[in-house]
Structure formats: structure tokens, C-alpha cells
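Can't paste images in this forum, so I'm doing it all in text. The chain is below; anyone willing to post the predicted C-alpha cells underneath?
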Amino acid sequence: MLNLTECRDRIDSVDNQILELLKQRKAIADDIANYKLERDQPVTDKNREQQKLNTLMQKGSEMGLAPSLINKVFRQIMDYTVAYELCYIQDKINNKDIKRSTSVSYLGTIGTYSHLAAHKYLESYAGKFEEYGCNSFAEIVENVECGKTEYGVLPIENSSSGSINDVLDIVQMMKARIVGELFYPIDHSLLTVNGGSLEEITDIYSHPQPVTQCSNWLNIHLPNVKIHYTSASSEAMKEVIRLNDPKIAALGSKNAAKFYSLNSLVTDIANNPNNFTRFIVIAMSPIVVPGFVDAKTSIIFTTKKYTPGSLISVLNEFSKNNINLTKLHSRPRERNARETWEEIFFADVEANLDTPVMQNIMDNLKQLTGEIKILGCYPSNEIHD
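Text version of the structure:
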């Protein structure tokens, strides 16, 4: 019979073999990612994964291994492999010569800021690009979670009006993960058919928000213009095209004008010249952010009830590790009507989840919070002054 020291030596040897096999598996994942990228194939194959898991479960049972262990280890390895391949492919597609198809859901129709943000985020994709305009934020999330589209784009906050609470409420419940962010400038412009001039404008079609955000310019330059409100900026542009009158204009993005063959008569007329909207990009598979890339981790959590200073204790975990929070926002938690009122906190952390310091913080927060959920870790596009 082996003694304890010999047993530990054998365990160490087996662990080293596992690490070497994982290294080999990672190298094969590179080849698989390249193969799929070159042939424009999807990263995941759910049927093959299930067949493989069934085979491993059968073999594991014959070897006396618990099915729950096989399932857990397989899922963790596959989740990491898919995340790694997605990150590998995202890095590769910056080369415009590489073609890869994708699909995305966004709010509204062609020409909305959500539509423009979706195109901006996925501009490196040179393959087939399927897009779905949605009527609600919930529809965007549903499209991603049911597999109708690979990505979803959601506006989560605006530099002038703050957080978009409807999105924060949906994010609480979603199964999808945040895999990217985008800060898109709100460049309100006056759009007309060809031949129009500023002096001749008598009517403007617009969603109410752009009118409010351009109020100063409108009061100075077009104080007597008649405003017609529409459900979206894209609807305003469609109406200008339909009427085909150079005296009628729409308020919308200068980047949207090309989709409707409109002319940007005057650009950047918003009250706040530095106005922008932050969009998050969601997908079902998380990504792994390389260590050399600035990363952001988004989390939601509740504090422990009836515990004084519980929120301060959570924030101190980041402060003492010199980690910055770029966002902290609270919302009522989405709960059954019979349940008691509870606040849930949204936080964006300037750190990579895959680092030892963040892993340690997450472990500590499990003890300091009522509940905690990681929404995603992704490359940061945070705007710094």
C-alpha cells in the first residue's frame, strides 16, 4: 500500500498530465477556430456537443465515475472553449479579408441610433449580415436567447439623460451575457431631400427626444417651424421621403441619411455637443478577454438585508484593491408582487474578471452580498477625459 506522500506525488503527476492535455486542447481549439472562420461556420454545434456528452457519460459510467462529475467538467471545458474560440475569431476578423457571417437584433428600424450602433460594432464582419429590427428591448433579448440572432444591441445609458431603466430591468433577468460595449455619438442633424435650404424649412418631423435635445438650436434658427412628432427618427425620415418636399426636414443622425438618400442640411445641432449613448452587446456565450486588452466586468448584486454598512463593505472590496467602478446604479428588483421591496445594484468594474484579484473579490462578495450575478466581462471602450 502506498503511503500518503506517494499518493500525493501520484495526484500531482496526474494533475500535471491534465494541464498538459488542456494545453494541447487549447492549441487544437486555435485550429478549429481558423477552420470555422475560413469556412464561415458557426462556433457552436449543440447537436455534436450533446452527442459527445452522452458518449462521455456512458464511458464515465463504465469507469465508475459519477454522471454529475462528467457533466460538470464537460460543461466547464466546453464553455471555456467556445468563449476562447469566439475571442480568437473576434481578434482575427479585424482583417477585412476574412469573411464571417453573423446576425444581430436592435431596437427600431433602419436609421435609428440602435441600428447605427449595431452596424458600427459589427463593421469588421465581411460575410453575410442578417439584421432584425425589434419593437422592444425584451424582443431583442428573446431573439438572442432563442438563437434567432447571435448578437443583440441594447442602449443602456445616455450621457445627458442617464441610465435607461427599462433595459436595466430586463438585464436583471436575462440569461445572455454582455460581450461588448459601444459609445455612439448622438449627432442630431437636419435632414432633407436634395435641393432644400435652411431658410425654406417650414416643417420638421422628429421623435420627441431629438426635439428636446436640439431645442436651443431650433429656437434660434427655426423659431417658427412646425413640429410633427413621430414614433422614431427612422419614421421621421421615411415621412420626409414620402412627402418629397425640400421645405420639410427630419431630425436624425447624419450617418442615417445615407440609408434614405437624404441630405444633411445642418449637422451636430444638439444642445450638448458631447452627447453619446452607451450600448451593450449581448450574446449567449461569454468571451475571454486577453490580458493585454483593457477590460470591464459588469455585475448585479443585492446587499444583505438589515445589515448596516453592507453596501460600503461591497464597495470597499474594490477600493482597497485600487479598482475603479465606472457605474453604480440601483433599481427595484424584478420580483413577484407578493414579495417585499428590494433594491438591486448594477456595477461596471474596470477590471478583467479572469485575473486573480478579481476572482478573489468575487469570492469575497459572495459573503458580503445577498445575491450576486456576473453579467459579462468584455473589452472596455470607456471614454476618458
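Residues 4-38 form the longest helix (35 residues). The chain has a mean pLDDT of 87.
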